[in-house]
């Protein structure tokens, strides 16, 4: 079989490797050429293609291109290019290497046809993304990256355990529909679920994302959770517990987002909220809802990256990201503001933007299936996301009180990346059939039915009214310099408790009992033994050696006195010696 | 050049509010005209989504401010100690 295309992850893997050695202008062009080639390659990917190899006794399928993986692969390539354009001005080669490696791993995950390849790329992604957090250069970056890595390594262990059990039970490592049926599938679900920010397992995301660099967060926002959404859509469509998990994910983060001060943390919470819609769509499991999930992932990657890019631009230009320190930037950053508003409108699902044509499919699917409570909560979350991402982000950063900051507009390459993303958000909203045509199932949904448009306009219009009235009346919670605890309090305080017990109980026990016993049983006998041999060494071995050395020394001292160095002395000695020798021979022979 | 210069003016808030209120009035009138194709009966009440959106947001903000914030708010250096 001949291959007329390159496996997408390979392009980024090679790109990442060479980025290690390139610097300066060459590196900056290299990071744009690599995703550009990958995007071109993505358009010629043959759908319905599986590449099988037999390796270490396993049937692997490192490249499997079908309708589902294709959509994710395509949007990953598009967003990689936008990321590179956005990060063009960043001189840190470590960022570019890690970003390209993350992109390689994410593409590896979505095109993996077996669990072995999937796990391989899954772990690379965990490492490269935590590295992106670590080099973020914020106050808490390094610690947050360790916490992030801990969570993802734990998820990886669950995943590996599930895979091994699954392989043991079925003898197959093909990555296909699984469903929640046994322990193996539960472990795999938890492994995916940690990456897909399931409720209570979600804390790594709002913890780590605000700690990456202005460009790093954009990379993180696109790949980590969405590749988990892909794996869930592949293995667990129609799994009912995902409806519950998804609906909770849409609802609870918006409360945190309303009171959060760090703008990128607000966006992190709204990211969980949006992934909640996708997880709900997977849980419902109908053709409409799965189409909705895939479409929403596609649209979401673009507008979420756009929002993180706009806040990244604010961070880069002002050095500040807290709502209490920002405000009034509309005067000097109008383009960033415009693109931010497009992203905010898209995430809110304003008609004619991408969020409207994708999210409404999932909401409609929940109604079709008679999931009344879910439907009510999804509507609540739709109104709520408008509140914190749609209004709060642009309002507090660019309007609100005047912070006195007059930063320069973001550099051209950043505006270009934001402009392309904003254009795509509107293009998908205006002409959704381009996106609908590449979805896994045929689409019969009509987004712009008059009643749909009215529903959304009413919901959002009166949410805006609520915001306005609460703001004017002073009831809206003021921004505060504070952090808000999340469920990770239990992990972090729990670990501190563990460390306390470790220090006060285990260390004491070791000191008092284990160390003493060790001393008596091993150390003391060993010391005595060593002392004995030292004695043997000193008196016997050394004595012998020293003794022979001493006698050699005195002999040579005597000999030295005999040797004067004069030739005539030696000649006399030689002659005397010959005479003595002759005498001895004569005597012994008994006369001449 | 900068269309947002409008917000520098002192009367901008008033104009924004007038635009918002008239837009919402038009929406509420349209709601009575546009035919509904509801999954649930209650969706057919006049301005159901308007009322729901408004109430949802007020509940969201009040709950976040008066219930969640007192529970979870800490000083910024909370975890450093």
Automatic annotation (TrEMBL), chain A:
Pfam families: Proton_antipo_M. GO terms for biological process: ATP synthesis coupled electron transport. It comes from Thermodesulfobium acidiphilum. Coiled coil: none annotated. One of its GO terms (cellular component) is plasma membrane. Its main location: membrane. Residues 112-382 form the NADH:quinone oxidoreductase/Mrp antiporter transmembrane domain. It is a multi-pass membrane protein. This is Multisubunit sodium/proton antiporter, MrpD subunit. InterPro entries: ComplexI-like_HydComp, NADH_UbQ_OxRdtase, ND/Mrp_TM. It is found in: Cell membrane; Membrane.
TrEMBL record, chain B:
Keywords: Membrane, Transmembrane, Transmembrane helix. The chain crosses the membrane at residues 12-33, 45-68. This is Uncharacterized protein. It comes from Thermodesulfobium acidiphilum.
